[in-house]
């Protein structure tokens, strides 16, 4: 009887082999892991589709998706077929095996090893290269859509006389096809050579012929294809010279042909094209001649020609023809660059006027009343007073204002418009009483209301004069939907509209609750949707939480820039979205650009660097969202709005002549509304965008000149000055204010900046652009050019003079004693009667008062400087006469608190602070100052204790 117990004749279990149960478990885990990965990918796809459908831009999702899928499969299949066919062909043409050499005997082991798996190996290799090629091609969806939908510019380049659309839309696609062709030829050549070697068609050490005739012919054809593609590359390189970037000693960054390009590189490319064609024909001829001799000679000739004709000859021309007389040789090409660059950036109609920089009127007292007619000098700096808004109008800790507020125009009670500083009271999750999933995503879901203040006034305590304030907000803006579900600070998701009530706002009667009534977001009624979002947001509670029920909707992608960038991924988004109250709703207004990197002869700029300034350095949320960082064409082609309550995104065609926008509108029809759909109420709040202005001002540092000789000499190169209000080397930001230039009859809402000579601090020019689209000259750039024979103080020099004036320095020193901190506001420059008026607000962040208050205003004109408590007083002192205009309102705004104890304590704190400032002025009286500081601390401590006690009942249930 056989031994059943595993003896010598019984069945044996292989050592290390897992049991059936373990194998089943491993298979099950593998299947579950695969299903998990598949559902994770599906969740990302499904949630994207649901979001695009919720914002009514599903056509953007489907067009982009099908374009990517089409490119993936077409080019992936082409690559797989090309490589697979060449492997198959090389295997089919393998020579019969004869007496084997040592080389072939060693290879035979590999041939025998892969023989059973040849088909699978072939499929694996072709699938791998196909997947890689398809993924690379899918990333070119923008290039494909621009090529297939491109419209003409109706402008031709000066060298080849091709429409600009060829360079902007066609050439990038041709270059991609060429790159794909090179990759296909090289991979096919490698795969075929390896196959021929494996099966004996190519030999390295064997005696006799190194290659069979079949292998010779096959590889020659592939090499011929490669050299043919090189010929095409030489031909396209000719056109590429028109958009080529290079370093030009005279100007730095350069785009387009120079003398050496037109007279050396261009002929060289023509010659190399014909040499490459001949060389390719020689490779193809190997099919009949079966010898490598002529193709190798031809290929060597092509390489030698590329070195001599394409490299050495242009260097000789540059050295011996251009450098001895560079300005004369390069001037015609520089002139083409000047014209193209100015057209591409929309600065070709810039009006440059000479400006003396010195007052034309000897009696300066006559100019006092002209100041108010010339400009509405804004003493509320939106980049400084945000903490003041926060302290006086935050109301609850779970609200917050952006670091940088915005400037807009709103009508006063008498119907006149005034510059207004405003911000939204947005949700701040960091300030809620207790952070947990329900509070963060269900209860605290939105901000509430607009807070606005006059830009040109402060009250007698140095605080903003609010025109819209408190909670709910009330004031000059009238009735409007105040809930803010979409904003710049709203970066997390919220689930609204279900059984869980949301905190709307709080007042003296306690918390008010609400439930979202909008149709925004994605419905979570479906278990599939809940599961997909649980995976997408890595939050399992979304799947099973009882807080989600009938009507629950999930809101995400909630910042205005994110929403616009998502529905229009072909646009570049301005860094500064700003809110406006329009027709009873809060609308975020977002400026968007179409860009290109293919405008012939136009110099390139780097958007990330060009649009950076002292504000973006400290607030990354104001950075431009760029599809292309390197561009040489830009247009503010789209104005977009995002409703702060519903999240609705609307795109409006702003530049109806822009060919790039027309191309994208063909690719994504019905996504951009016509300009005529913009309502008059919305039009009143549109403005010239900051990032475009910053790009244009950077280009105008060099391209304000139109003469090639002057441009080449570099004698009139300007620079954007550093921000004088801080010690950083970041550029000064442009400023919005209502003003009029010398050739204008009335004030216009404008965006302004200054220029200094390259490497110096005196003023070169002042630049302004009309920013109100209702004005006839909207978008017109005016530059006042200062004389080079005399010097006019620039912003940095003016700031230095302020700081070095003994009386001013002493006052600033007193203001900054103790724990107080002096902060300088925007240094505004205003052209006045041939001279330049500078005005700068000075704020003090005093000790325990952790927010800045306007304490002084610096004004200088024609060498006369004043440092007074108000703008009117400073102007009166500078011009030596009191203004005849009506006095500004000095009404004190009480602190915005609904608790009487807190309000009284803050009023006591303000009185103590004012007493301290008076003590500094009189003597100073240090004993009185010390007493005032103690009273100030006591009052603030009392206010803090009272506010904490008032908040406890409202937050205990959170």
- Count the helices. How many? 27
Q: Whole-number average pLDDT?
A: 86
Helical proportion, percent range: 40-55%
DSSP E strands, number = 34
Percent strand: 15-25%
Structural class, from secondary structure content? alpha+beta
Report the biggest beta sheet as strand number plus sense, adding barrel if it closes. Answer: 6 strands, mixed
Task: Report the span from N to C terminus.
Answer: 80 Å
Per the principal axes of the C-alpha atoms, what is the gross shape? Answer: globular
Radius of gyration, rounded? Answer: 36 Å
In short:
With about 950 residues, this protein is of the alpha+beta class.
Which tags fit this structure?
alpha+beta, six-stranded mixed sheet, 44% helix, 18% strand
What do you see in this structure?
It contains 27 helices and 34 strands. With 958 residues, the chain is α+β, with helices and mostly antiparallel strands. Among the domains are: 62-211, no CATH class; 212-344, no CATH class; 375-558, no CATH class; 559-686, no CATH class; 897-955. The strands form ten sheets. Strands 3, 25, 26, 27, 28 and 29 form a six-stranded mixed beta sheet that branches. It has a five-stranded antiparallel beta sheet with strand order 5-6-9-10-11, covered by helices on one side. Strands 18, 19, 20, 23 and 24 form a five-stranded antiparallel beta sheet that branches. A hairpin with a 3-residue loop joins strand 1 and strand 2. The protein is globular, with a radius of gyration of 36 Å. 44% of the residues are buried.
């Amino acid at each position: 009887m056989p031994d059943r117990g595993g003896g010598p004749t019984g069945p044996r279990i292989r050592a290390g082999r897992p049991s059936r149960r373990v194998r089943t478990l491993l298979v099950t885990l593998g299947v579950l892991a695969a299903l998990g990965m598949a559902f994770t990918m599906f969740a990302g796809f499904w949630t994207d589709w649901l979001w695009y459908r919720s914002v009514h831009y599903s056509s953007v999702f489907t067009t982009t998706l099908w374009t990517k899928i089409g490119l993936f499969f077409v080019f992936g299949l082409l690559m797989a077929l090309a490589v697979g066919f060449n492997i198959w062909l090389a295997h089919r043409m393998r020579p019969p095996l004869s007496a084997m050499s040592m080389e072939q005997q060693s290879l035979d082991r590999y041939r025998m090893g892969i023989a059973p798996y040849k088909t699978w190996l072939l499929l694996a290799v072709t699938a791998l290269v196909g997947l890689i090629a398809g993924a690379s091609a899918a990333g070119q969806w923008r290039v494909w859509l621009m090529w297939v939908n491109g419209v003409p510019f109706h402008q031709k380049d000066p060298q080849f006389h091709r429409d600009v659309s060829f360079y902007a839309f066609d050439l990038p696609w041709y270059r991609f096809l060429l790159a794909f062709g090179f990759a296909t030829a090289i991979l096919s050549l490698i795969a075929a050579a390896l196959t021929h070697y494996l099966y004996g068609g190519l030999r390295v050490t064997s005696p006799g012929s190194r290659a069979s005739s079949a292998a010779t012919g096959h590889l020659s054809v592939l090499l011929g294809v490669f050299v043919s593609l090189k010929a095409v590359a030489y031909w396209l390189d000719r056109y590429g010279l028109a958009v080529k970037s290079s370093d030009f000693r005279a100007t730095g960054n350069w785009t387009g042909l120079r003398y050496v390009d037109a007279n050396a590189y261009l002929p060289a490319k023509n010659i190399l094209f014909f040499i490459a064609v001949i060389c390719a024909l020689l490779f193809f001829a190997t099919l009949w001649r079966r010898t490598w001799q002529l193709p190798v000679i031809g290929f060597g000739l092509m390489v030698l020609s590329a070195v001599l004709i394409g490299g050495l000859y242009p260097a000789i021309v540059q050295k011996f023809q251009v450098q001895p007389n560079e300005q004369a040789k390069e001037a015609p090409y520089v002139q083409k660059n000047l014209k193209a660059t100015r057209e591409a950036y929309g600065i070709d109609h810039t009006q440059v006027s000479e400006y003396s920089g010195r007052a034309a009127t000897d009696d300066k007292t006559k100019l006092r009343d002209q100041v108010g007619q010339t400009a509405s000098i804004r003493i509320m700096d939106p980049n400084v007073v945000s903490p003041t808004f926060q302290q006086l109008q935050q109301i609850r800790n779970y609200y917050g204002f952006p670091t940088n507020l915005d400037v807009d125009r709103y009508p006063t009670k008498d119907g006149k418009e005034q510059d207004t500083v405003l911000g939204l009271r947005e949700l701040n999750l960091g300030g809620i009483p207790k952070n947990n999933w329900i509070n963060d995503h269900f209860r605290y879901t939105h901000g509430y209301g607009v807070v606005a203040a006059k830009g040109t006034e402060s009250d007698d305590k140095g605080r903003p004069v609010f025109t819209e304030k408190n909670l709910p907000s009330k004031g000059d803006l009238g009735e409007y939907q105040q809930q803010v579900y979409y904003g710049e600070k709203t970066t997390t998701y919220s689930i609204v509209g279900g059984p869980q009530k949301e905190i709307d706002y709080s007042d003296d009667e306690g918390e008010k609750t609400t439930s979202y009534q909008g149709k925004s977001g994605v419905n979570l009624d479906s278990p599939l949707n809940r599961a997909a979002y649980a995976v997408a947001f890595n939050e399992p509670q979304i799947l099973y939480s009882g807080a989600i029920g009938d009507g629950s909707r999930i809101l995400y992608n909630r910042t205005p820039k994110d929403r616009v960038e998502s529905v229009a991924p072909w646009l570049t988004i301005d860094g500064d979205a700003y809110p406006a109250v329009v027709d009873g709703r809060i609308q975020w207004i977002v400026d968007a650009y179409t860009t290109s990197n293919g405008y012939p002869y136009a110099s390139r700029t780097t958007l990330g660097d060009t649009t950076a300034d002292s504000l973006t350095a400290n607030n990354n949320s104001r950075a431009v969202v760029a599809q292309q960082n390197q561009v040489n064409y830009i247009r503010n082609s789209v104005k977009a709005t995002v409703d702060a309550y519903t999240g609705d995104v609307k795109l409006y065609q702003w530049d109806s002549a822009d060919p790039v926008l027309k191309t994208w509108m063909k690719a994504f029809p019905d996504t951009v509304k016509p300009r005529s759909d913009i309502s008059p109420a919305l039009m009143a709040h549109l403005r010239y965008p900051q990032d475009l202005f910053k790009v244009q001002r950077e280009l105008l540092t060099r391209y304000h000149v139109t003469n090639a000789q002057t441009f080449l000499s570099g004698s009139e190169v300007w620079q954007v000055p550093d921000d004088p209000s801080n010690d950083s080397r970041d550029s000064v930001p442009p400023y919005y204010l209502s003003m009029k230039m010398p050739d204008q009859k009335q004030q216009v809402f404008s965006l302004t900046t200054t220029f200094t000579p390259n490497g110096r601090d005196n003023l070169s020019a002042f630049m302004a652009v009309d920013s109100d689209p209702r004005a006839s000259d909207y978008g017109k750039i005016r530059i006042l050019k200062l004389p080079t024979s005399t010097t006019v103080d620039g912003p940095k020099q003016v700031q230095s003079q302020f700081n070095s004036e003994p009386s001013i320095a002493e006052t600033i020193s007193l203001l900054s004693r103790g724990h107080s901190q002096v902060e300088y506001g925007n240094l505004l420059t205003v052209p006045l009667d041939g001279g330049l008026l500078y005005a700068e607000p000075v704020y003090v962040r005093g000790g325990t008062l952790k927010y800045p208050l306007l304490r002084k205003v610096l004004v200088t004109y024609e060498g006369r400087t004043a440092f007074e408590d108000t703008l009117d007083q400073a102007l009166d002192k500078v011009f030596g006469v009191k203004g005849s205009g009506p006095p500004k309102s000095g009404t004190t705004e009480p602190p915005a608190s609904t608790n009487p104890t807190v309000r009284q304590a803050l009023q006591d704190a303000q009185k103590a602070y004012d007493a301290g400032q008076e003590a500094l002025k009189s003597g100073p009286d240090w004993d009185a100052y010390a007493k005032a500081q103690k009273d100030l601390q006591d009052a603030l401590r009392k206010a803090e204790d009272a506010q904490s006690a008032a908040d406890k009942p409202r937050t205990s249930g959170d």
